């Protein structure tokens, strides 16, 4: 049995994202099963690492998103993280994030 994680602090250029929850009911009132619900490709950034290292200077290269930003995600990929609040969290590299939504 895997231990449930309370807090995640991403390293380097990794970003922790909480996926948006898909609607389980259509506009017409039809209840969808879990297989019928499409994965959401949008999420909210929860935590951000310090950035990747510049090989010449050793300084961190800042990441283009910050906690609280809405981002567009790839349909597949990332590393799932199970936290104690039972929401879907995924850990991505900065290059995997497709866009920042405003």
Briefly say what this structure is.
The chain is mostly beta strands and 102 residues long. The protein is 0% helix and 32% strand.
Written account of the structure:
The protein is an all-beta fold. It has one domain (14-101): 10 Kd Chaperonin, Protein Cpn10, Chain O. It contains no helices and eight strands. The strands form two sheets. A six-stranded antiparallel β-sheet has the order 6-7-1-2-5-8, with no helix packed on it. The protein is elongated and about 55 Å long. The mean pLDDT is 82.
List the helices and strands and how they pair.
Blueprint: E1 14-19, E2 42-48, E3 52-53, E4 60-61, E5 70-72, E6 79-82, E7 88-93, E8 99-101
Antiparallel strand pairs: 1-2, 1-7, 2-5, 3-4, 5-8, 6-7
What fraction of residues sit in β-strands? Answer: 25-35%
Find the count of extended strands (DSSP E, 2+ residues).
Answer: 8
Overall shape: it is elongated
Query: Which strand order spans the largest sheet, edge to edge or round the barrel?
Result: 6-7-1-2-5-8
Going by CATH, the homologous superfamily would be GroES chaperonin
The number of helical elements comes to 0
How many domain modules? 1
CATH topology: 10 Kd Chaperonin, Protein Cpn10, Chain O
Cα-atom Rg, whole angstroms?
A: 16 Å
Helical residue percent band: under 10%
Q: Span from first to last CA? A: 39 Å
The major sheet is characterized as: 6 strands, antiparallel
Weakly predicted, low-confidence segments: none
Structural class: mainly beta
Mean residue pLDDT? 82
Q: Return the CATH class.
A: Mainly Beta
Spell the H/E element sequence.
Answer: EEEEEEEE
CATH 2nd-level architecture:
Roll
Protein name: 10 kDa heat shock protein, mitochondrial
Organism: Ceratitis capitata
GO cellular component, one term: mitochondrial matrix
GO molecular function: ATP binding; metal ion binding; protein folding chaperone; protein-folding chaperone binding; unfolded protein binding
